[in-house]
Design a protein that fits this description.
It is a multi-pass membrane protein. The protein has about 300 residues and is an all-alpha fold. Helices cover about 70% and strands about 0% of the residues.
Length: about 300
């Protein structure tokens, strides 16, 4: 059967006039699709500008992530206050994205931020994986690195849920997303802190991560307790957020903002490590150049040439 296929290809080649066959080969060569032209000229890596920038300056990714997510918080807050949909003195973050148009902006920006956050987490995992391979570390730390990756992805996914499930229209989904974001984020931060202290001792990065993890944990506890107290007392008719419960309400909302910003700020500790990394995108190569000539129309000088075997 292989011989028959080979004979068929030979017959196709012979059936093509010599001058037309030469024209097709020239067109393939000019378009960089002929095997000989591929061998003579190295492939150029064409990437969007942002990817080229990240390849050469990967350490700006944590900064971009921080700016995007925090900008999403304050942009929706500003729009909500401008339209009178939320009070100016620190509402809950979720209550700045209940009505249009702020909830549309919030969902758009925070979804992008969740993707960037997941990218940071994955790159950090790859960095630690390569580093552990070089220093021949114990398997326990490699497992912890994988668990941190999964936990970080869960936190990023929860952030996307928060953006897409508004607290009024989809309360259950919103609270599940918030729980995944905060709890998963705290676990991830403490895992990274433990790994940093283990291998970096008490370097600036390790100390910075420890401080951020402590602030994040304390602010989350304060937020959870104060919000529970506020909701219980409000349900009992003790007061509202504008009178007797004003203090506990502000403690709850401010601690939520501190928790969210602290969680996002943790990726800034990756800045120094990412300076020593470079990004390489996957690339594809044609393995059957005859298939290109057979299945695709090669255009040259403004005219199309019929698909042929060369």
């Amino acid at each position: 059967m292989a011989k028959d296929s080979h004979r068929s290809n030979d017959a196709d080649r012979k059936s093509l006039p010599q001058d037309e066959r030469k024209e097709v080969i020239d067109l393939l060569t000019r378009n960089g699709l002929h095997p000989e032209s591929q061998a003579q000229k190295p492939a150029r890596e064409n990437m969007p500008f942002i990817m080229v920038l990240l390849k050469r300056r990967l350490h700006i990714l944590p900064i971009i992530t921080f700016i995007v997510i925090v900008a999403g918080f304050f942009t929706s807050y500003g729009i909500a206050v401008y339209h009178g949909h939320a009070e100016a003195d620190f509402p809950y973050i979720s209550y700045t994205a209940i009505y249009a148009p702020e909830r549309c902006i919030f969902s758009l920006i925070i979804n992008l931020g969740a993707f960037l956050l997941a990218a940071n987490i994955y790159i950090k995992y790859l960095e630690m994986k390569v580093a552990y391979r070089r220093i021949n570390t114990v398997s326990r730390d490699r497992i912890l690195n994988k668990i941190a990756l999964i936990t970080g992805f869960i936190s990023a996914f929860g952030l996307s849920m928060v953006a897409n499930f508004q607290t009024v229209d989809a309360r259950v989904g919103h609270y599940i997303g918030a729980g995944l974001t905060f709890i998963g984020g705290i676990i991830y931060c403490w895992m990274q802190t433990a790994l940093s202290i283990r291998y970096r001792r008490w370097s600036c990065i390790a100390v910075g991560q420890l401080v951020m993890s402590l602030v994040l944990s304390c602010s989350l506890v304060i937020f959870s307790v104060s919000k529970a107290i506020y909701k219980i007392q409000e349900a009992q008719g003790v007061g509202t957020k504008t009178d007797k419960l004003r203090v506990v309400y502000l403690i709850s909302t401010i601690s939520e903002w501190v928790t969210a910003v602290s969680l996002v700020s943790f990726v800034l500790t990756f800045f120094k490590d990412f300076r020593g990394l470079s990004l390489h995108l996957p690339k594809i190569e044609f393995t059957d150049y005859q298939k290109i000539a057979k299945d695709y129309v090669v255009r040259g000088n403004g005219q199309a040439v019929a698909p042929v075997m060369v």
